[in-house]
Amino acid sequence: MNKTPYFVYLLKCGDGTLYTGITTDVARRFAEHQKGIGSHYTRAKGVVAMVYQEEVADRGAASRCEALIKRMTREEKLALIALQERKTTR
């Protein structure tokens, strides 16, 4: 039996803040946020870009990773985003 992969993601909002969430389909969820049907927060702030995504094993792992990221400072989140950007540009 194949498990559905989950993803943790960060969005940059219109006011410069970062929003963290989890999903099984990053493209679908991003489109929902852009249409204003994603979350109350992103509906109010607007969504500029998907700035981070990471695949994890299952929903439990995604929730734990989301909670960890939400506890990070803004500077730590930006460092996480920069680290992923460096990995993808190699």
From TrEMBL:
Domain GIY-YIG intervals: 4-79
Q: Which domain of life is it from?
A: Bacteria
State the CDD domains in the record.
Answer: GIY-YIG_UPF0213
Membrane spanning segments where? none
Name the Gene3D superfamilies for this protein: GIY-YIG endonuclease
Protein family membership: Belongs to the UPF0213 family.
Q: What is this protein called?
A: GIY-YIG domain-containing protein
This chain's source organism reads Candidatus Kaiserbacteria bacterium RIFCSPHIGHO2_02_FULL_50_50
